[in-house]
Amino acid sequence: MSNSGPRKPPLVAERRKAKTKPKAPVKPRKPRKRAAAKRRSGNVLTRGIFGLLRWIWRIVWGVGWRLTAVALLLLGVGVGYYYSTLPEASALLDGRARGSVTLLDRDSDVFAWRGDQFGGAVNAQAVSKHLRNAVIATEDRRFYIHPGVDPIGIASAVRINLSEGRGPLSGHGGSTLTQQTAKLLCLGTEYVEADWKSEAEYIADCRRGSLGRKAKEALYALAMEVKYSKEEILSIYLNRAYMGGGAYGAEAAAQRYFGKHAAQLNPSEGAMLAGLLTAPSTLAPTSNIERSQNRASVVIGLMRKQGFLTQEEAAIALANPAELSQAAERQAGGYFADWVMSSGPEFFTRDTTEDVIIRTTLDQRIQRAAEAGLHAVFDEKLRDGSKAQAAVVVMSADGAVRAMIGGRQTKVSGAFNRATQAKRQTGSSFKPFVYAAALELGHSSQATVVDEPYCMNIPGSGQWCPENYDRRYHGRVTLVDALKHSYNIPAVKVAEEVGLDLVRKVASDFGIESDLAAGPALALGASESTLLEMTGAFAGILNGGSSVTPYGLVELKLLGSDQPVMGAGGGIGERVIREDAARELTWMMSRVVDGGTGSRAKLPGREAAGKTGTTQAARDAWFLGFTADYVAGVWMGYDDNTPLTGVTGGGLPAEIWHEVMVRVQEGMPATPLPMDAPRVQPAQPQVAQQPQGQGNQGWQGNQGSQQPAPRPQRTREGPVESILRQLFGG
Question: Cα–Cα distances in Å, from 496 out to 6, 432, 519, 578, 690?
Answer without folding.
Answer: 186, 15, 10, 21, 17
